[in-house]
Amino acid sequence: MVVATYVYDDPDHPFADRKPAAIYCDVLVYTQMTGGRTYLVRGALVTQEFASIQAGVIHKPRAATQTIAGEALDPSRPMDPAQLDGDHVLLGFIDDKRAQAVILRAIPPPNQGVGHEDAPVGQRMRLILADGDPLLFRHHGVLAGFSDDGSYIIDASGGNRGAIDASGHEVPSPAGGAVQVRAKLSAGVTLALVSPSTGADAVTQTLGQGGLSVAFGSLPGRLTLSGAAGSLMAVPGPAGAAAQFGGGTNTLVSTASLVSYLNSQLIPWAKASFTPSPAGGTPPPRATPAALGSPQVLVP
Questions:
Q1: Which of 14, 15, 27, 267 sits most deeply, having the most CB atoms within 10 A of its CB?
Q2: Sign for the pseudo-dihedral over CA of 167, 169, 170, 172
Q3: What span, in angstroms and rounded, lies between the C-alpha atoms of 265 and 294?
Q4: 224 with 160, same domain?
Q5: Could you tell me if residue 104 is inside a domain?
């Protein structure tokens, strides 16, 4: 059971004089063997999945602070490790020396996932038969990984600061829950939807130095900008290149009809309505949108 963690600049680090880059923990070692003793191992090195000079995994085990029943941690009296909120870990010892302990792996605690028994797998850490074979990662309420059907999932809606209440439940937090994607401006970000029948990109969306572009492949589609009142603008794909304007009730028009309407009615109306009158002259009659007759275009 992890009872304390130490990072690079921690003033209480057991090896502060060496400035080690790795994470270290104090671990309460317990056994259920008859006659076995509980003892404390100071400064156990935390191993990671992989680590090199400029690459690796960063994971800091959770140190116990209380019991699931809400009792404060008290090393001076016996406590059931299964009821503590810290990480359960497997220790190894280099050359069988207690002073060279390393944390090899984590072991799921008996109360893992408390409070999420009815949540989807990943938010619920206990695997059941219906979940199949997922590969998921969860930290501070944020879930990422692969579902049994091969879908990639990112769910940050439950993001929190990692605090746990007296019953072992996560404490909701207004902080966190954001998803950030950063890329070089010159490289951009591309999202492609692939046709399952052909394997070709059906819709490709690219955001980069040239702005936002959406390309439709062999699959006809429509780009829509929507607001609270409905579609603000929608541009169908190549099979009928057209545009849609307005909110609420909208009228679909072809590009040719739109250009014809602009040239024949809308532009002349604008010129007549906003051209200053000559001194002493009579202003031209002001048209209104309702007077612009077109069964093809709705002017909001």
A1: 27
A2: negative
A3: 9
A4: no
A5: yes
Q: What is the CA radius of gyration of the chain?
A: 32
Which tokens sit at 141?
């309420």
CA 81 to chain centre: 33
What does the alpha-carbon distance between residue 287 and residue 269 come to, in Å, rounded to a whole number?
6
Tokens, residue 77? 């009296």
Assess whether 125 and 224 both reside in one domain.
Answer: no
Closest alpha carbon to 102 in 112, 92, 90, 117:
92
Range of the domain at 253: 220-275+287-300
User: Is position 175 within any domain?
Assistant: no
Predicted TM-score of the model (pTM): 0.69
